[in-house]
Amino acid sequence: MKDEGKTMQITVERTGGFTGIPVTKIIDSKTLPQQEAARLHKMMTEADFFKLPTTISSSPQPDRFQYRITVEQEAKQHSVTVDETVVPANLKPLLNWLMAQPAQPATH
Amino acid sequence: MISSQNETARTPSRPQGTHICPICCIIPPHMSDHILKHGDEKMQTWMMETIRRSEQFQGRREVIGNFALALSPGEKRRTVYDARKRETLPGKLVRSEGGRKSRDVAVNEAYDGAGATYDLYHDVFERNSIDDQGLRMDSTIHYGVQYDNAFWNGNQMVYGDGDGRLFNRFTIAIDVIGHELTHGVVQYEAGLIYQGESGALNESFADVFGSLVKQRSLNQTVDQADWLIGAGLLAPGIQGVALRSLKEPGTAYDDPMLGKDPQPAHYSSRYRGSQDSGGVHINSGIPNHAFYLAAMEVGGFAWEKVGKVWYITLRDVLRSRASFSKAADATISVAGQLYGQSSHEQTAIRKAWQTVGVIE
Fold it and tell me: CA-nearest residue of chain B to A59?
């Protein structure tokens, strides 16, 4: 609970998939309505995000997505790269919420 | 409980998921075989479902091939399921072979697209379904929420609805369906590893045969075909015509949200990074374009000659770690066997691989 008041910057990059088109979402918890920010913190705690391994992978399957989630919170930073087929159940709500946020325009 | 044919024939079909393994594991194979051959359609569907679940549970996929063969060798058998925005497979059965048209356009697109793909492989390449043993073609539509993807999961096809802002529903383009089913064919044949060049070849075979499914369903010659993958898939307002172009890799879209189509048409411009399993959806543009060039040079219907060379190469020659240059050599060699050394077809294929910079 002590992290509740701290702001977070989250970047999620989705690559692969049938389209092969990468999608990036950048979320700053400062800019979220209070309720959404609280929800985000709750999902982060449930996922135990900072303790997840940096890579969660399976043997590659055609046309599936891969996600790279990076969270910065004050001095802490952690990145997790996870294949769509092996997303842990406790990370799924966070990932779904992140992917439902508006996308960033393409950078290239 | 399944003690005689008459009893089983009267048993109403069960909603999926109510019986999973306890039953299927104790039905001896000869009995389930009998149900598949003589039960009514509902019973057959239920039995297939039961076997399928048991096969998933036990991780033994060869089981399903044997039963499929027992049921109807050489026949097209399709089923479409609705995941109803969840991510549980396969979902609720909504259409099976010979069943009535649905009011849901995605159901009919998945059904018809699987049919057109079966027909290309069967009528042109004499292949009996994905595994060449009559495997039932299962598709699930409405997978997930605003899911921007379609995939073959090793057993079946899965289609998302798209988010509506960037992408429409993934069944909208028949070549997407042919693409996904071809991943199944690749899995049963060359088994191209989904990483780097072998992965890009896996993608390219899926695009090539996906495009051939479309061309044949429209009865188009090489000059009439659009050579696009995913025409109609981009949502209104997105700047582009499709996801990929075999004719002009790198030109399918250029949009502020999606970026620009990154596909190269020449080996010297290949992507060398690690994203997308080493650029499998990027570098597939190179062999895609080689196929296009060869097909244009030979002319007529692309599936008849160059398509056949690509199919035989995939089925009989390539190994799982094949590189682009191995694929080039293999197609040239197969063209020589089919049409003669220095034939017009072989020359066209060699020239195509030279033009895209894969061989000298």
Answer: B194
Is residue B57 predicted with pLDDT exceeding 50?
no
Chain A interface includes B185 (CB < 8 A): no
- A103 and chain B: CB distance < 8 Å anywhere? yes
pLDDT score of A44: 95
Cα-flanking dihedrals φ and ψ of residue A65, to 5°?
A: -85, 155
Q: CA B181 to CA B113: how far, in whole Å?
A: 10
Q: What's the CA gap between B63 and A41, in Å, rounded?
A: 46
CATH 1.10.390.10, applies to B196-355: yes
Report yes or no for ipTM above 0.95. no
B257:A103 CB<8 A: yes
Active site residue B180: yes
What are the structural domain ranges in chain B? Answer: 26-59, 196-355
- pLDDT at A59 (0 to 100): 85
Locate tokens 């596909």: which residue?
B263
Pairing of strands A55-56, A65-73: unpaired
| pLDDT tens-digit readout, A39-95 | 999 999 999 999 999 999 998 899 999 999 999 998 899 999 999 999 999 999 999
* Cα torsion angle, A32, A37, A43, A44, sign: positive
Among candidate residues B102, B1, B101, the one with its CA nearest the CA of residue B46: B1
Closest Cα of chain B to A7: distance in Å? 27
Could you tell me if B194 and B151 are in contact, meaning their C-beta atoms sit under 8 angstroms apart?
A: no
Task: Tell if the CB–CB gap between B258 and A106 is shorter than 8 Å.
Answer: yes
Instruction: Report pLDDT for B2.
Output: 36
For residue B5, the Cα-to-chain-centroid distance in whole angstroms is 36
Tens digits of residue pLDDT in B271-314: 999 999 999 999 999 999 999 999 999 999 999 999 999 999 99
- Looking at chain A, the number of H-run helices and the number of E-run strands are 2, 5
Q: With the CA atoms of B163, B166, B170 and B175 taken in that order, what torsion angle do they form, in degrees rounded to the nearest 10?
A: 180
Which residue of chain A has the CA closest to B198? A62
Length of chain A, in residues: 108
